[in-house]
C-alpha cells in the first residue's frame, strides 16, 4: 500500500503542470482539466480493466476538443464529454475494443508521432510572445527537465522545473504571463449539473463529429497505453472493460463539468516505473491531485506559462518515436509501412484531428496489404503422361483482389479434355474468389472440356457453396 500511495503521489505531482497545460490547449479554464483528471482517475480506478494505468484530461483529447470550445463554448464540451462516455460504454459492451488489433503498428507509431508534433506546436503561442523574459524562462525550464533526471529521480523533473521558474518569476517580478491569466482556478469541489445547451437537432449536428473523433482518439490511445503496461508488468488487460469503464468515467466527468479524457502514456509509464501495480495507485493519483490543487490554487495561479510550455515541449520530444525516423530503421522498414506512418502524420498535423489520421492510415495499410496478398497467388500445372489430363495446383489466398490473376492463369484453348484444379494449398476467402472459380469452370464447359475442383478444405468449401457447378458435383 505504501508503494502504491507513493506512486500515486509522484504521478499527481507530474499531472498538475501537464493537466493545466492541456486545459490551455483545449481553451478552457485550468479548473476544467484539473477536475476532469481527478474525476476520471477516481472512477476508472474502480471501473477500468487495466490496473495501474493513469487516465485523465489528455493532450490528444484537448487537441480534438479545442475547435469545439473555440467555436461554440465550454458547455458544448461538457455535452460532448457525456456523449463520448455513452458511446465508449456502448462500444465496450459490444466488444468493439478488440478491434484495436486491426490497427497496424505503423499507424500507431504515426499516431504517437503526430500527437507529439501537435503538442509541441500547441506550445508555440506561449513561447513566442511580446514578453522577452519568456525565452530565458523556457530555456531554463528545458535545462532543468533534461539535467535533473540525470542527477536524481527522487524529485519529478516537471515539478522541479515549474517550482523553480515560478520562484524566479515571482521573486524578480518578471511580468511573464501566468496560469492565473488563462482562467479561473478551482477553490472548491465541482457541483453536478447538466450542460447549458439547447436540445435541438442543430446541437446534435455540431456535437456528433466531435463525439465520434474524441471517442476514436480516446479509445485508441487508451488501448495502446494498456498494451504498453502489459509489456512492462507481464500482465494482461481487459480491453472491453477498459472501454466501458472509461465511458462511465467520462459520463460522470461530463456531469461534473470536466473535459473528455483517456489514458495518458507518459503519466502511466511514470506510475508503473514508481512501483504502481494496482488500482490504488490510480485512485491515489486523482486524490492527491485534488488535495494538492484546492489548498494551493492561489500558488498555482502564479506559475508562469513559460514553465508549462517548457514541460510540454520536453514531453512532446520524449513522446515522439525517434527510432522510427532513423535512417537505419527506414532502410530496414518496407516502403509501404513507411508510407503508412508518414501518411498518418501528414493527415493529422494539418487537420489537427488524430481520428482522421488513424482512419487514413488503416485504410492505406489495408490497401497495401491487399495488394501484397494478391501477388501471393501462384498457379502451376503439369500434364498427365498420357496427355489426357492437366492438373493445375493453386497456391495462396484467393479473394477479390486476386481474381484477375486466377482467371487468366489457365490455358482454356489448348488444355486436354479433362482438367483438375487442386486447391490443397489455397484458401478461398470470399464470394469473389468463388465466382472467379465458377467462371473458370464455365469457360472450360463452353469449350467442351471437363474441369474438376479438388483439395478443398472446410473453410474454402463454405465459400464455394455459392457456386452452382461446385454444389452439383465439383465439376463442369
CA-to-CA gap between the ends?
A: 74 Å
**Rg, please?**
29 Å
Please trace the helix and strand order, writing H or E for each element.
HHEHHHHHHHHEHHHHHHHEEHEHEHH
- Main-sheet strand order equals 3-4-5-6
* Tally of DSSP helical segments: 21
- What do the pLDDT scores average to? 87
Major sheet size, sense and barrel closure: 4 strands, mixed
Structural class: alpha/beta
Number of distinct beta strands: 6
Share of β-strand residues? 5-15%
**Helicity, in percent?**
55-70%
Which parts are unreliable, with pLDDT below 50 for 5 consecutive residues or more? none
Global shape: elongated
Structural notes for this entry:
With 476 residues, this protein is α/β, with parallel strands linked by helices. It has helices at 2-26, 30-47, 59-72, 74-94, 105-122, 124-127, 134-151, 157-171, 201-233, 239-255, 265-273, 279-293, 297-300, 305-319, 327-332, 335-351, 354-374, 403-407, 431-446, 458-464, 468-471, and strands spanning 55-56, 262-263, 378-383, 389-398, 418-428, 450-454. A four-stranded mixed sheet has the order 3-4-5-6. α5 (105-122) runs parallel beside α16 (335-351).
Strand and helix map with partners:
Elements: H1 2-26, H2 30-47, E1 55-56, H3 59-72, H4 74-94, H5 105-122, H6 124-127, H7 134-151, H8 157-171, H9 201-233, H10 239-255, E2 262-263, H11 265-273, H12 279-293, H13 297-300, H14 305-319, H15 327-332, H16 335-351, H17 354-374, E3 378-383, E4 389-398, H18 403-407, E5 418-428, H19 431-446, E6 450-454, H20 458-464, H21 468-471
Helix pairs in contact: 1-2, 1-3, 1-8, 1-11, 1-12, 1-14, 2-10, 2-12, 3-4, 3-9, 4-9, 4-10, 5-14, 5-16, 5-17, 7-8, 7-14, 8-14, 9-11, 16-17
Amino acid at each position: 500500500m505504501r508503494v502504491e500511495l507513493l506512486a500515486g503521489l509522484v504521478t499527481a505531482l507530474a499531472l498538475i503542470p501537464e493537466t493545466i497545460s492541456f486545459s490551455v490547449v483545449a481553451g478552457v479554464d485550468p479548473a476544467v482539466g484539473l477536475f476532469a483528471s481527478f474525476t476520471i482517475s477516481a472512477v476508472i480506478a474502480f471501473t477500468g480493466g487495466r490496473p495501474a494505468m493513469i487516465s485523465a484530461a489528455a493532450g490528444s483529447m484537448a487537441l480534438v476538443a479545442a475547435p469545439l470550445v473555440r467555436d461554440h463554448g465550454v458547455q458544448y464540451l461538457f455535452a460532448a464529454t457525456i456523449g463520448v462516455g455513452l458511446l465508449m460504454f456502448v462500444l465496450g459492451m459490444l466488444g468493439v475494443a478488440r478491434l484495436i488489433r486491426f490497427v497496424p503498428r505503423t499507424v500507431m507509431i504515426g499516431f504517437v508521432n503526430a500527437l507529439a508534433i501537435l503538442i509541441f506546436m500547441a506550445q508555440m503561442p506561449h513561447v513566442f510572445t511580446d514578453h522577452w523574459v519568456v525565452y530565458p524562462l523556457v530555456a531554463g525550464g528545458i535545462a532543468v527537465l533534461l539535467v535533473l533526471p540525470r542527477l536524481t529521480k527522487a524529485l519529478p523533473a516537471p515539478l522541479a522545473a515549474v517550482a523553480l521558474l515560478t520562484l524566479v518569476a515571482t521573486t524578480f517580478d518578471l511580468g511573464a504571463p501566468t496560469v492565473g491569466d488563462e482562467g479561473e482556478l478551482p477553490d472548491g469541489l465541482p457541483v453536478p449539473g447538466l450542460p447549458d445547451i439547447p436540445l435541438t437537432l442543430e446541437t446534435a449536428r455540431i456535437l456528433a463529429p466531435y463525439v465520434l473523433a474524441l471517442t476514436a482518439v480516446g479509445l485508441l490511445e487508451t488501448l495502446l497505453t494498456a498494451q504498453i503496461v502489459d509489456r512492462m508488468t507481464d500482465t494482461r488487460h481487459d480491453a472491453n472493460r477498459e472501454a466501458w469503464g472509461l465511458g462511465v468515467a467520462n459520463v460522470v466527468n461530463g456531469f461534473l463539468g470536466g473535459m473528455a479524457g483517456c489514458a495518458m502514456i507518459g503519466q502511466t509509464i511514470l506510475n508503473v516505473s514508481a512501483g504502481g501495480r494496482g488500482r490504488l495507485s490510480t485512485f491515489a493519483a486523482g486524490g492527491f491531485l485534488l488535495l494538492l490543487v484546492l489548498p494551493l490554487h492561489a500558488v498555482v495561479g502564479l506559475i508562469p506559462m513559460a514553465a508549462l510550455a517548457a514541460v510540454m515541449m520536453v514531453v512532446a520530444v520524449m513522446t515522439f518515436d525517434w527510432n522510427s525516423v532513423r535512417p537505419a530503421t527506414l532502410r530496414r522498414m518496407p516502403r509501404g509501412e513507411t508510407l503508412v506512418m508518414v501518411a498518418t502524420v501528414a493527415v493529422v498535423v494539418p487537420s489537427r484531428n488524430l481520428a482522421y489520421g488513424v482512419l487514413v492510415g488503416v485504410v492505406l495499410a489495408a490497401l497495401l496489404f491487399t495488394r501484397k496478398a494478391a501477388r501471393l497467388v501462384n498457379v502451376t500445372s503439369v500434364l498427365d503422361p498420357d496427355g489426357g489430363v492437366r492438373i493445375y495446383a493453386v497456391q495462396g489466398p484467393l479473394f477479390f483482389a486476386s481474381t484477375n490473376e486466377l482467371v487468366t492463369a489457365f490455358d482454356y484453348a489448348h488444355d486436354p479434355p479433362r482438367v483438375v484444379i487442386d486447391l490443397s494449398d489455397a484458401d478461398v476467402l470470399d464470394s469473389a474468389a468463388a465466382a472467379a472459380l465458377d467462371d473458370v469452370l464455365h469457360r472450360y464447359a463452353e469449350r467442351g472440356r471437363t474441369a474438376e475442383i479438388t483439395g478443398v478444405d472446410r473453410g474454402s468449401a463454405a465459400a464455394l457453396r455459392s457456386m452452382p457447378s461446385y454444389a452439383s458435383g465439383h465439376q463442369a
